[in-house]
Amino acid sequence: MALLITHKCINCDMCEPECPNQAISMGNEIYEIDSDRCTECIGHYDKPTCQSVCPIDNTIIINPAHKETNEALWDKFVVLHHTV
């Protein structure tokens, strides 16, 4: 599942540089996560780094609109990083 940044976001700029897939960018009001690029850090880290660095609890959550298996997230990582 891709992640989602909720309106609890305070635009602290912590998450965007931590994303290894460049899936996080500034939206109109708060940071947003591109679900086509988010792998929940599968292929890079044990857990999503954006959630780890976010200072506000439950601000970055699983996006219920983009449910994906770990295998699908891995496949997305492979496509994004051209790894075989």
UniProtKB/TrEMBL annotation:
It holds the Pfam family Fer4_7. Residues 1-29 form the 4Fe-4S ferredoxin-type domain. Keywords: 4Fe-4S, Iron, Iron-sulfur, Metal-binding. It comes from the Bacteria. NCBIfam families: di_4Fe-4S_YfhL. This is YfhL family 4Fe-4S dicluster ferredoxin.
